Amino acid sequence: MGISDRIGNKRLRTAADYLVLCIGTMIAAFALESILIPVRIMDGGMVGAAMIISAKTPVPLSVLTLLLNLPLVFIGGRKLEKSFIFRSLTAMAVFSGALTVFGRFEIRLTDDRLLAAVFGGIMLGFGVGLVLMSGGCLDGTEAAAIMIGKKLRLSVGQIVLSFNVLIYLTAGALFGLDRGLYSLLTYFIVSKVEDFINTGMQQGKAVMIITDHGKEIAEDIYRTLGRTVTLIEGSGLISGEKIVLYCVITRIELSSLRKLVEKQDYTAFMTVSDVSEIVGTHIKSTSALKTVPPAPDDEAPESDDESKAGEGE
Fold first, then answer.
1. What are the φ and ψ backbone dihedral angles of 166, each rounded to 5 degrees?
2. Which residues, other chains included, contact 251 with Cβ-Cβ below 8 Å and sequence gap of 6+?
3. What angle do CA 192, 20, 60 make, to 5 degrees?
4. CA-CA distance, 29 to 50, in Å (whole number)?
5. Which CATH number fits domain 204-308: 3.30.70.120, 3.100.10.10, 3.40.1190.20, 3.20.20.80?
6. Can you give the pLDDT at residue 290?
7. Which residue has the higher pLDDT, 101 or 308?
8. Rounded (5°) CA angle 60-66-70
9. How far apart are the C-alpha atoms of 149 and 28, rounded to whole Å?
10. 3-state secondary structure the chain
11. CB atoms < 10 A from the CB of 201, how many?
12. Spatial separation of the C-alpha atoms in residues 25 and 13, rounded to whole Å
């Protein structure tokens, strides 16, 4: 679940997750206290609600984030894993402490609201993304939305979006319409950066290669990248008989795959598309395999399943 899946030792993996979780938490706290709060740009969720209340009352933000989030985590956490709850509580405690520390330094990186919205959103999204990647969260809104959604038959996304719209409308009414719009821009940037941190570099890419050298390219992919390939017999309207290769790789492997295909067949036709979800264990962080499975006997009789030959996903 965490960022340290490559570490074999369970205790070291857990320790690494908590270390990254704390780092992400402190980055998020710094983004709020030093970039967003000085120019009255609000975050979403319960943290955003705490920011609005803190701006209008003498109650510190660090205290409000705990008071508003802890009940939601306990309410919604009954349907979640215990490890998630414990990591979330740890993240919230560190977040509260970091807000207190950074608040005392009174660092103000910029007075430009657009710069604050953009770079504050990037930094906040990066920090929150690390926390989520490590198996925790900083905001209890989604945990509560899980419980509410089951009763109202609404999706978690719909509930969270509705709550955030209410937060930004309130921010616009209290601090000016432009602050509400800047807050909405920040929320959009945060969500995009969060997604990139969690799935960006490991996002699946479906690659389809149409070539005359299917066997050679498939073996090269398997040997170099450690990825299995499905071979499908195809026929082009003009080019005639072809082999179609289908392979799912990660984003960081795409450049290497291009070079492999160009080396074996510079005339090959290749398409690349995003994969929104992968079921199974095809995409995984493994070292490239050094051996290639024996090729099927070329003289073996054909069967109806030959169109599905190769390494099936």
1. -65, -40
2. 200, 201, 202, 203, 205
3. 75
4. 13
5. 3.30.70.120
6. 45
7. 101
8. 160
9. 27
10. CCCCCCCCCHHHHHHHHHHHHHHHHHHHHHHHHHHHHHHCCCCCHHHHHHHHHHHHCCCCHHHHHHHHHHHHHHHHHHHCCHHHHHHHHHHHHHHHHHHHHHHHHCCCCCCCHHHHHHHHHHHHHHHHHHHHHCCCCCCCHHHHHHHHHHHHCCCHHHHHHHHHHHHHHHHHHHHCHHHHHHHHHHHHHHHHHHHHHHHHCCCEEEEEEEECCHHHHHHHHHHHHCCCCEEEEEEECCCEEEEEEEEEEEHHHHHHHHHHHHHHCCCCEEEEEECCCCCCCCCCCCCCCCCCCCCCCCCCCCCHHHHHCECCC
11. 10
12. 18
Question: Has residue 55 got a pLDDT over 60?
Answer: yes
Q: How do beta strands 230-236 and 240-250 pair?
A: antiparallel
CA distance 91 to 44: 17
Domain ranges of the chain: 10-200, 204-308
Taking only the tens place, the pLDDT of each residue in 71-90 is 887 776 666 667 888 888 89
This prediction has a pTM of: 0.69
- Percentage of the chain beyond pLDDT 90 is 36
Please check the confidence at residue 282 and state whether its pLDDT lies above 60.
no
What's the one-letter identity of residue 224?
Answer: T
Residue 73 near residue 92, CB atoms below 8 Å: yes
Place of tokens 């006997």: 297
